[in-house]
Amino acid sequence: MKASGLHPAVMLLLCFISSAACTSLGFTEEPFERAGKADGYCGRILRAQSNRKESNNEFRLRVEGDPDSYQPGSTYRVNVIASSPSYFRGFTLIALKEGAGGDKDDDYAGNFRIIDEDETQFMTNCPHAVTESTPRRRNNIQVFWTAPPSGSGCILLKASIVQKKIIFFQDEGPLTKQMCEKDATDKPLLDCCACGTAKYRVTFYGNWSEKIHPKDYPRRANHWSAIIGASHSKNYVLWEYGGSASDGVKQVAELGSPVKMEEEIRQKGDDVLTVIKMKAQWPAWQPLNVRAAPSAEFSVDRIRHLMSFLTMMGPSPDWNVGLSAENLCTKECGWVQKVVQDLIPWDAGTDSGVSYESSNKPTVPQEKIRPLTSLDHPQSPFYDPEGGAITPVARVVVERIARKGEQCNIVPDNVDDIVADIAQEEKEEDDTPETCIYSNWSPWSACSSATCEKGKRMRQRMLKAQLDLSVPCPHTQDFEPCMGPGCSDEDGSTCMMSEWITWSPCSMSCGAGIRSRERYVKQFPEDGSICTLPTEETENCVVNEECSPSSCLVTEWGEWDACSATCGLGMKRRERMVKMPPADGSICGAEVLEQQFSLSLCLVTDTIPCLLTPWSEWSDCSVTCGKGSRTRHRVLKSPLELGECTEDLEQVEKCMLPECPIDCAMSDWTEWSECNKSCGKGHTIRTRVITMEPQFGGDPCPETIQRKKCKVRKCSRGQGNSDDKKRRKEQREKRRSKQVKTEVTSEHPGCKMRPWSSWTECTKQCGGGIQERLMTVKQKFKTAQLSSCKERKEIRACNVHPC
């Protein structure tokens, strides 16, 4: 047989490579099935040869992210791509251990997983291979591949392509991808041999902007939520790829709230050394001269040498960035000097939205945490049909600023180590761009410390003009260390102390408690004396003074915001959140916002383009219950002639009120039942059922049964006796009849009726339900009128006792 003008040998070869291509040419796989096991069939695919000798770059096999190695057990997206205008009709994809022949099950590595069953399927006679579902023109397919367990060595991902009458085989370079197991030395070091402790500063730089990520960029509401994290031991995991999001991670990812996450961290006790907190950033990207990047300090030791944090991209379904278990301990028993990491967003697996402002769509069941990719969904703002890497949306810098205690690192300290420990606060030479015009520096302020404890003093300058908006202008404030009168940095008996770290949360969530803060010795006295200055201090604190059912639980006050005015009188504010509403359902009366006046030193009388009023109060939530949003505004005060002001004049944040009440819902009333008496006074009823029970304080359910009097006709004398006689006569007739069921014809001339059915089950166990029974027509005589022959239904109340 020579179908389609092909030589039989070539047709046989097509059958090896593509099951659909074989079917389209009129061949079947039966000869191969008779040949033996599927393993032999797989082996023949690998041993097939092509007459095409020249190399080509029309087709390529690509693993997303282009990794050179694989992590055992991890899942990767594999693509077979045809460069435009090329295409292919069939393909085969396998994963083979390097050097193996493919004749045994053990020769294959990992497992494929189908993404689109309309496009791909497992090959019938070779279950290790993936092939096309239907033969048609295509330029891209994709599947998931899960790497084999540790110890599998190097593997080869191989693809074969069928295009018209030409077959491209795996051994041609672009269709083969080698990946070796990731070296164990690349794994995070879980055990630490360093001595003493180290102090670090983490700084977060948002790089998520409309210029870099233009697709569907949310101009008005873009921000980073408050950052939450910790330095911790290997026994605690805040979040990790392939893991499930905790309630705390879910609250950060969906609402941007760090409250639950902080509670989870603090419950870990000795597994956590420092809780890391940084303020939210509105908008998500800001020039360095407008606002300093968020930063925080934390400590690590031999046990708690890992650092993790996360922050939400807002708005988004459940997207975040962060570090997970970053190891700050080196193999040489020292402390890492600096870590710089570009961050891409990851999905918490709790919401199925595909774009920044997708409506809430909870993922049920919850999925695993995974990095976002450029092939997730065409509506994704990061979508790239070529499967390229996502441009980072943020960068984090972790720098060591001090070490404490005796160190035992094997490698001697270099210059950078020494500078970081002793002179980390020394300023670099002024590198102010020529395009930034400033006023002169003001005189240094008084030292913040009146004792020999180390403090800071400050000076300021005003940005008068920015000639080139593409060149950022550096800071307008400068700080340097200082001590009180009579003290000297050069005094050999003086302890050099760090600044106090932020106060810890109050030890009680309701009532009086204690909070603490700490600092550390940056430099011990050179004369060998003991440093007697305290490194920890405590103070009393009160949270939620009233501890009653009508009181609500609130968090401690956050840090004060910067003064709203850079010159003269302004306002500063701080906030706290409601952790739990009153148990009795009343409205929480605790204040969640506090403001006070602040005064900033005016250095010169010049004005700058962005002179703004303080932020207004937050508006009411856009909804009266459930999830919504609220806004606040400010107004530009400086004249437009001074230049363009790029500051936001409106901010939007999410808000959440108690669940909306759901009222009781009822069905429609049924028709009134027939009167329960054939003559004289009786009653008739109608009923309805509850379709939705009230929830969250909704209106209760009304009555489900109504009765009213009825009277068909007056009863004539003796009618009752005649009815009794008729019933006794019918009973006698029934006893004489051998039939199990009696046909009822009384009151239905021209019809034969079936007996009444049994009463149905009561619709409710208590509180009033209904029962029904039916009488249906069995036979209708020709002489019967239309109106005289119809079904009957009776309804009665049941289980009317209260619940």
Automatic annotation (TrEMBL):
This is Spondin-1. Residues 188-381 form the Spondin domain. Residues 722-733, 740-749 have a biased composition (Basic and acidic residues). It is found in: Secreted, Extracellular space, Extracellular matrix. Its main location: secreted. Keywords: Cell adhesion, Disulfide bond, Extracellular matrix, Glycoprotein, Metal-binding, Repeat, Secreted, Signal. It holds the Pfam family Spond_N. The keyword Protein transport does not apply. InterPro entries: Reeler_dom, Reeler_sf, Spondin/Thrombospondin_T1, Spondin_N, Spondin_N_sf, TSP1_rpt, TSP1_rpt_sf, TSP1_spondin_dom. CDD domains: Reeler. Residues 27-192 form the Reelin domain.
